[in-house]
Amino acid sequence: MADATKIPYPILSLEGHLEPYQSWMIVILTIVLVFGVPGNVLVFAVYYSKTKKTSTHVFILTMAILDMFITIFSIARIVHWLYESSYETPYKCQGYQVFGSWSEFFSAFMTTTIAADRYFQICRPHFPMTIKKALLCSLIGLGISNMFSIPVAFLYGIEDNKCQITKDGLALYIPLTLAFACFIFLMVTALVLYTLVYLEVRKRFQNRAGSAIFVRPSESTAIDSERGQTTAVTHVGEAVRVIPKDKDTRGKHRESNGSKPVACSRRPSVTFLGVKIERRSEGSAKVEVGRTEMTVGKK
Predict the structure, then answer these.
(1) Which residue of 58, 98, 212, 273 lies most exposed, with the fewest beta carbons within 10 A?
(2) Tens digits of per-residue pLDDT, 43-72?
(3) Beta carbons within 8 Å of 268's beta carbon, 6+ residues apart
(4) Which residues on adjacent β-strands are paired with residue 268?
């Protein structure tokens, strides 16, 4: 009689409740499903509608499509956790594990590829990532993900109606070690690339603060007229504005909407967009535009 009332493949306990870990996994996957689908649809629509696409757009579109598949697959994972102890054949079990491993490897590879794209765009601008290269990298990532995820099917099976690893020894440790090493390599590579990007961006900002001067409107600029020229003196790093002689009156300048920003080079002398820039001393430079001269440096 006891055997007749026994539930061989329980989904719920006798009290009608899920196990705590099952409940948590179902809640997390439901949140991912609710927010992931509209979010990825929005990202795909925005980047796909752009007329001029770059390698970055290709990678983001690929990630959006990948995340969409993973998000939709959350429905199958919810079913997996509900029926964790109710497997009768190994095929569903192996399918869940293979797709899960494939999505994790592909996401890791695309994350590293996006980091490489940022690195080349910022640190190596003369070697840009083209759209063809971006598509090729995506296909390579797909192949690597398949190579590491398909063997997972041979590691999992059914024991006591539960989906779990059934292999042991070298048949288990060799593929797991290779997969783990590949995943760590991808993540460390992405971390190193983003670190190099951060250092390059910080160096550029430091150089700009120390020697880059932009000629544009500034209330703190002092204007003096002598010998038929206009001279402006300001602190290094502040905004300075080139003002033609006919724009200033009695040593003061008026607003001019036609002035354009001009960057000061660190080289001793350079001509930039018709503007001659001469470095006089440390923290000082002379800017000449036609008959207008500006001395830029400490007051």
Answers:
(1) 273
(2) 888 888 888 888 888 888 888 888 888 888
(3) 278, 279
(4) none
User: Exposed, middle or buried by CB within 10 Å (0-12, 13-18, 19+), for 8?
Assistant: exposed
Angstrom distances, CA of residue 216 to CA of 94, 187, 219, 273 = 65, 44, 10, 15
What are the start and end residues of each CATH 1.20.1070.10 domain in the chain?
20-210
Whole-angstrom Cα distance, residue 293 to residue 299? 16
Write the CATH number of the domain with boundaries 20-210.
1.20.1070.10
Strand ranges for 94-221 from DSSP E: 156-159, 162-165
Q: Which residues of 119-131 are buried (b: 16+ CB within 10 A; e: fewer)?
A: bbbeeeeeeebee
pLDDT tens string 187-222: 999 999 999 999 988 888 877 654 444 444 444 444
Find the helix or strand (DSSP H, E) in which 280 lies. Answer: strand 275-281
